[in-house]
Amino acid sequence: MKRVLSGIQPSGQLTIGNYIGAMQNFVKLQHDHECFFMIVDLHAITVAQEPAALHEQSEQVAALYLAAGIDPNKAAIFMQSHVPQHAELGWLMTTISYMGELERMTQFKDKSEGKDSVGAGLFVYPALMAADILIYNADLIPVGDDQKQHLELTRDLANRFNHRFGDFFTVPQPYIPEVGARIMSLDDASKKMSKSSAVAGSLIALLDDPAVIRKKISRAKTDMEAVVKYDPINKPEISNLMSIYAHTSDLSIAEIEAKYDGQMYGPFKKDLAEQVASFIEPLQARYHEVRKSGELHDVLKSGAERAQAAAQQTLDEVKRRMGFVMPR
Ligand code: ATP
Ligand code: LTN
Fold first, then answer.
1. What is the Å distance from ligand 1's center to 147 Cα?
2. Calpha distance 268→83 (Å, rounded)
3. Is the CB–ligand 2 distance for residue 131 below 6 Å?
4. Which residues line ligand 1 (CB under 6 A)?
5. Are 202 and 188 in contact (CB under 8 A)?
6. Which of 5, 172, 236, 308 has the CB geometry, 3.0–4.6 Å to 36, for a possible disulfide?
7. Which of 195, 216, 235, 269 is catalytic?
8. Is 292 a catalytic residue?
9. In ligand 2, which atom is closest to the CA atom of 128?
10. Is 109 part of the annotated catalytic residue set?
11. 3-state secondary structure of 153
């Protein structure tokens, strides 16, 4: 069975972009793959996090994994920090990463832009992400479009290691949705919807109150043409809303175009708001059940145990190949 691994940062409220770009595929892939899904808390702290918020958000992401339908009997669900092997392999990966290639990462450029002081962790972030993936010899990595560059670097590091120390790591493949791999901000379709955005109206959070969601969708920016047509280049705002519609209903983009042929944006937005609300309500109900049940910590414990066993094997072999004296 092929191995799948991915992670989401507990760096804010998860958005519908995180769901469409990543989580939806986690749920899909779990049936016929061996899956590892993390809450990447070590990555989240590459940008300052308030401790109480980090704690709450980490539990939220874990509970949302379950609420979205990830089955802990199928997939290992765990906190990255509960598997210390990630940090250790992350260090080893840092030593084979080049400054130049890390400097080229657009996520680093975006997140450090205009800041007086930038933490070194933000810079070496992709080496830790490579370790997350390579430590399980994962084959497939379900992510949104923005992570393509990090995955390309992971592939380079895997090949570099294999070349220097002998063929060992699996070179992973990205698994990116065709439509919806980059859900854009509701207020500015040139930016991706991001959970750490300061503009509340730019994002739909999975835990937003349905009334808030309706308001955000009614205020979402659109063009002046008032034609419901999918054209991401010339009509990025409405095309973005159409992707959200397609992913929260069973209609395809073509069916949505046909349904709203000759109509203005008003009725489209109204239906979209209802569609998103009725998609999110059961998810939120399951989320609250999970939080109340107290099952979370048992799930995380058994997930971490499964992950540690696989991770330690890889780490030992990597260290042996690199020439470390192994304890006897
Ligand atoms: P942050 O703003 O803190 O960087 P983020 O919202 O970009 O957070 P991540 O934790 O970095 O979220 O991403 C988790 C997963 O969701 C990744 O696979 C990422 O590619 C995907 N993702 C994030 N934003 C979007 C989006 N707007 N559209 C589609 N996929 C997305
Ligand atoms: N960098 C990713 C989060 C992440 C990840 C991973 C994704 C950390 N480690 C391993 C896939 C596989 C992000 O910012 N979304």
1. 8
2. 46
3. no
4. 8-9, 11-12, 15, 17-18, 20-22, 143-144, 146-147, 181-183, 192-196
5. yes
6. 5
7. 195
8. no
9. 9
10. no
11. helix
Q: What global pTM score does this model have? A: 0.95
Q: Closest Cα to atom 19, ligand 1: which residue? A: 144
Q: pLDDT (tens digit, 9 = 90+) per residue, 311-320?
A: 999 999 999 9
Phi/psi of residue 239, each to 5°?
A: -65, -40
Active site residue 192: yes
Residue with tokens 């990966």: 93
Name the phi and psi angles at 204, rounded to 5: -105, 115
Give the count of beta carbons closer than 10 Å to the beta carbon of residue 233: 6
Instruction: Divide the 328 residues of the chain into consecutive groups of 10 and give the mean pLDDT of each group.
Output: 97 95 96 98 96 98 98 98 98 98 96 92 98 98 96 98 98 90 94 90 96 96 94 96 95 96 94 96 98 96 98 98 96
H helix runs in the chain, sequence order: 16-18, 24-29, 41-44, 51-68, 85-95, 99-103, 106-112, 120-134, 148-165, 210-219, 236-248, 253-259, 265-293, 296-322
- pLDDT tens digits, 11-35: 999 999 999 999 999 999 999 999 9
Beta bridge pairs of residue 142: 175
Which one of 1.10.10.10, 3.40.1000.70, 3.50.50.60, 1.10.240.10 gives the CATH number of domain 200-288? Answer: 1.10.240.10
CATH value of 3-176+294-322 in 3.40.1190.20, 3.40.50.300, 1.10.3720.10, 3.40.50.620 = 3.40.50.620
Rounded to an integer, what distance in angstroms lies between the CA atom of residue 87 and that of residue 121?
12
Q: pLDDT tens digits, residue range 209-266? A: 999 999 999 999 999 998 999 999 999 999 999 999 999 999 999 999 999 999 999 9
